[in-house]
Amino acid sequence: MEMLTQFVSEHLEDDTSRLLLSRGRWPHIDMDLAVACIESRRKLKGKVQEWYDNTSLIFPAKLSAEQCSSSATASYKSALAERIASAEGWKIADLTGGLGVDSWFFSRRAGKVLYNEMQPGLCKAASHNFKALGACNIEVSNHAVSSDPVPETSEASPSSILGSFSPDVVYMDPARRGEGGKKVFLIEECAPDVLNLKDEIFTVSRHILIKLSPMADISMVCSRLGETCREVHVVAYGGECKELLIWMDREWKEEYSVHAIELPTDFPASQQSVFTFLPSEEKNVSDNVNMATCHCEDTVSGDHPGKTLYLFEPGKALMKAGAFNLVSVRMEIAKLGKSTHYYLLESDEQIARLRGLGKVYRILRCEPLDKRTMKAAGKDFPKAEVTARNIPMDTDTLRKKLGITSGDDAHIFGLKSDLRGNILLCTRRFL
Q1: Which of 164, 158, 210 is nearest to 187 (CA)?
Q2: For residues 162 and 367, what is the distance between their CA atoms, to the nearest angstrom?
Q3: What is the 3-state secondary structure (H, E, C) of the chain?
Q4: Does pTM top 0.85 for this prediction?
Q5: Contacts of 63 by beta carbon, 8 Å cutoff, 6+ apart
Q6: What local confidence, expressed as pLDDT, does residue 396 receive?
Q7: Which of 301, 264, 237, 299 is nearest to 431 (CA)?
Q8: In whole numbers, what is the pLDDT of the chain averaged over residues?
Q9: Residues paired with 423 in a beta bridge
Q10: What are the residue ranges in the chain where pLDDT is below 50?
Q11: First vs last Cα of the chain: how many Å apart?
């Protein structure tokens, strides 16, 4: 193994296709495995830097490296699992271990971790890697999880895998690829099928934590999983919505809460930004939003020209979570339109409450969107980022009409306002 890892380190920047064609030069090296390790390590650079930096690790499948959690999201999950378990020396079972990144991060907080993976190659690699990383509290298991009362020879039921381990929390990250590698989004199309497994798992553990695609529909997922859904965590990092985490509690019978989580680039050194709400709260606030919009848009129109105004663009977590109206009412900010999820800010207090939940821009100019204003904006801001929302043109078309290129800290928005129609906002990034 040492010979393999040394070869990987020495050829990390090489063309892997050429290495495969030249495998005869290194008859003592399993070239397929070496190339998988090289390509996987490239995927892990900056994503799971701790693993990239450890040259003793092996990675038999590039796809596993592509699909594994990042250090930031895995660290968040481990903290969430610790809160869920709420016990000294708590134990967690990862039924879909994969590359083992989540299991390793769990092991840094938990007393014991059960890593289970159906692919023997990944299991062998994980066992080696955990030892190389000094994680001595992880037990490795190699079983395909089955919901069939009479499993196949290579399969095992959840209770047979988990029974003697007795975890406080069971974690699953079902594979979101079907036949031929096609991506799937419905929960019953993922493997293993959580819908068919949850009842049996609940006989062993009170808590289940599931990672799903960020593309999954939150209300549909929770409806399918049932009343034991306790919390939904929408986790965004690096400007992208990365994960949808569902905490299921066997004893929970109330409404689930939604947590929009924006992780900073240096997480966990800096704290995450969180917006928490109940779906029923969002449903019941629409009338209050319209009143706030009327007041603030009058200000934008020039009735108070001396006042500095700001535009708030929600981050990916807030957008996915769907708190479109509640964020306006709770944060006391004005919404541009029913379907235009941008907001107007007037005070430092409002800006402070929204810190980390999205981007804030200082509004330099707000005018009707027409040929004259676009021409003037293009002349005054020859370099700027551009965004179009809910207007009769997309972002690329608006950029062409403005005649500008990307660059600088300016940002021009073409947005639909329910009260003012289509407007052009020239801004600079503030926060």
Answers
A1: 210
A2: 62
A3: CHHHHHHHHHCCCCCHHHHHHCHHHCCCCCHHHHHHHHHHHHHHCCCCHHHHHCCCCCCCCHHHHHHCCCHHHHHHHHHHHHHHHCCCCCEEEECCCCCCHHHHHHHCCCCEEEEECCCHHHHHHHHHHHHHCCCCCEEEECCEECCCCCCCCCEECHHHHHCCCCCCEEEECCECECHHHCECCCHHHCECCHHHHHHHHHCCCCEEEEEECCCCCHHHHHHHHCCCEEEEEEEEECCEEEEEEEEEECCCCCCCEEEEEEECCCCCCCCCEEEEECHHHHHCCHHHHHHHHHHHHHHHHHHCCCCCCEEEEECHHHHHHCCCCHHHHHCCCEECCCCCCCEEECCHHHHHHCCCCEEEEEEEEEEECCHHHHHHHHHHCCECEEEEECCCCCHHHHHHHHCCECCCCEEEEEEEECCCEEEEEEEEECC
A4: yes
A5: none
A6: 97
A7: 264
A8: 92
A9: 368, 415
A10: 290-304
A11: 48
Residue in this structure with the two tokens 């068919």, named with its chain if needed: 196
